[in-house]
Amino acid sequence: MALTHFDDQGNAVMVDVSDKAETARVAVARGRVTAAPETVALIRDRGLGKGDVLSVAQLAGIMGAKRTADLIPLCHPLALTKVTVDLAVDEAAAAVAITATCRVTGRTGVEMEALTAVSVAALTVYDMCKAVDRGMRITDIHLVHKAGGRSGPFDVGGGDE
């Protein structure tokens, strides 16, 4: 069975995964929000008037992972079994590092959910801090690990689960 998002007439369709076996699947994605050192200090010290940036971004990332099928066309809705989003202040790099891990037992992977979780968390950091730092940059969003399914494992390195 060829996996494609097009039918015989060239119309966009959701890939039929009904013949695939259900397996335990995991994906880990990472990204960063770089900011002025003063902004990173405000995030670290919870000194922004909008509240605890890291906690709000963590929750937003989890919620984003759960809504991936609503955001990405042709993405399968998944009953995620676990989502974690970790944010860490990296003062040396003047950044917030974001790591998301998504798990499911199903017929399709959770790479898009992990990438969406990182993206939404990063956008939340930006939104909460933009009044003090419009020069922030969201960078380096990428998949670092996946396991489960027919295509086998994928590691960029540092894909700790």
From TrEMBL:
GO biological process, one term: Mo-molybdopterin cofactor biosynthetic process
Pathway: Cofactor biosynthesis; molybdopterin biosynthesis
CDD domains: MoaC_PE
Domain of life (superkingdom): Bacteria
UniProt GO MF annotations: cyclic pyranopterin monophosphate synthase activity
Domain Molybdopterin cofactor biosynthesis C (MoaC) intervals: 14-149
Ligand binding (substrate): L74, C75, H76, M112, E113
Active-site residue numbers: D127
Reactions it catalyzes: (8S)-3',8-cyclo-7,8-dihydroguanosine 5'-triphosphate = cyclic pyranopterin phosphate + diphosphate
Keywords annotated in UniProt: Lyase, Molybdenum cofactor biosynthesis
Keyword Membrane: no
Keyword Lyase applies: yes
Function per UniProt: Catalyzes the conversion of (8S)-3',8-cyclo-7,8-dihydroguanosine 5'-triphosphate to cyclic pyranopterin monophosphate (cPMP).
Family to which the UniProt record says this protein belongs: Belongs to the MoaC family.
Subunit structure: Homohexamer; trimer of dimers.
Name of the protein in question: Cyclic pyranopterin monophosphate synthase
Lineage of the species this protein comes from: Bacteria, Pseudomonadati, Pseudomonadota, Alphaproteobacteria, Rhodospirillales
Encoding gene per record: moaC
